[in-house]
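G.,

No rush on this.
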Amino acid sequence: MPVFVKKVLLWGGVAFLFYFMAFRPDGAAQMFKAIGAGLMAMFQGLGDFMTSLMT
């Protein structure tokens, strides 16, 4: 992918994120909570896997 396209997509995503947080703060908060919960579940699963390997 050309560098210009990557920059446009990156800045478009950042702009959308700011727009979403400015005009839909409740929805943005719920989205970030869901992303955080998903990441925590993934790391918890990884930790459980590593613990089961060690025992």
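When you get to it, here's the other one too:
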Amino acid sequence: MYTHHKTYHPYASPFDPCKPISEKSFSTPPHLYIGFQPPNLPQFSPLEALRCGTLWKDFYDPYYNAQEKANGGLPT
């Protein structure tokens, strides 16, 4: 199974002067998991497509950083 949100644990040297970040995360876009574009995909309206950055709803991925997720998806 795949997810659009992945995490990893970077190496932390015992000699680092600062407290290490134990877990980092990143987002992967949905188009990485579709090998080809199927016909008749649902589409956004032209105005919505400009806001979302894609015409097809299946390829839309709203990216929220950790701070925005804590605020319910609202930018600060």
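The first helix runs from residue 46 to 52. The beta strands are 5-8, 24-27.

Enjoy the weekend,
O.
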